[in-house]
């Protein structure tokens, strides 16, 4: 039986160009996601001064700006960060769904990895738990995914 040849991405940043795109809405939560992402990237070898952080008004706006960055080819991966917290109206469903679908479409259509670091929670407490609290930091998780995917895409292109 032949052993499988395994291809996977390297977790080290190396010379990768990483951009973070973060929404300003729900800023207290999102700032913790940004901090977690920057910390994770630094732990993987990134110079924080080399990272690019782009701000957008809200999570619904992430796909448009992420697409522009992806199409510019000035970054190897993008980390999208935001927080959509359920309220009393169906607004949550539209924003969360369109944000997720739009970001997935950008990655699929451009070939640039887009890591999904957008929280979609029922309560603010749940959001804080996932932004550096008891549930970890989804911004850090998304940053690690972005690096691994960018390196994997490079390997697959060879």
What are the low-pLDDT stretches, counting only 5+ consecutive residues below 50?
none
Provide mean pLDDT, rounded: 95
Tell me the CATH superfamily.
Lumazine/riboflavin synthase
Quickly count the helices. 5
Order of strands side by side in the largest beta sheet? 2-1-3-4
- What is the name of the CATH architecture? 3-Layer(aba) Sandwich
- The helix content, as a percent range, equals 40-55%
What is the number of strand segments? 6
Question: Would you write up a description of this structure?
Answer:
It is a single chain. This protein is of the alpha/beta class and 158 residues long. It has one domain (18-157): Rossmann fold. The protein is 47% helix and 21% strand. The chain has helices at 27-43, 62-72, 91-110, 124-129, 138-157; strands spanning 18-23, 52-56, 77-85, 114-121, 131-133, 136-137. The model has no long low-confidence stretch (mean pLDDT 95).
List keywords for this structure.
alpha/beta, globular, 5 helices, 158 residues
Give a topology summary.
Elements: E1 18-23, H1 27-43, E2 52-56, H2 62-72, E3 77-85, H3 91-110, E4 114-121, H4 124-129, E5 131-133, E6 136-137, H5 138-157
Helix pairs in contact: 1-5, 2-3
Summarize the structure.
This protein is α/β, with parallel strands linked by helices. The protein has one domain (18-157): Lumazine/riboflavin synthase (Rossmann fold, 3-Layer(aba) Sandwich), CATH 3.40.50. It has helices spanning 27-43, 62-72, 91-110, 124-129, 138-157; strands spanning 18-23, 52-56, 77-85, 114-121, 131-133, 136-137.
């Amino acid at each position: 039986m032949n052993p499988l040849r395994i291809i996977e991405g390297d977790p080290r940043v190396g010379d990768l160009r990483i951009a973070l795109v973060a929404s300003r809405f729900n800023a207290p939560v999102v700032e913790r996601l940004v901090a977690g992402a920057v910390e994770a990237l630094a732990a993987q070898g990134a110079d924080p001064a080399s990272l690019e952080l782009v701000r957008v008004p809200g999570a619904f706006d992430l796909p448009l700006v992420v697409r522009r960055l992806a199409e510019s080819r000035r970054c190897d991966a993008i980390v999208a960060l935001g927080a959509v917290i359920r309220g009393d109206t169906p607004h949550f469903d539209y924003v969360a769904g369109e944000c997720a679908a739009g970001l997935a479409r950008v990655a699929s259509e451009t070939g640039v990895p887009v890591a999904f670091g957008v929280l979609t929670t029922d309560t603010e407490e749940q959001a804080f738990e996932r932004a550096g609290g008891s549930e970890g930091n989804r911004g850090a998780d998304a940053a690690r995914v972005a690096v691994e995917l960018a390196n994997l895409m490079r390997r697959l292109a060879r």
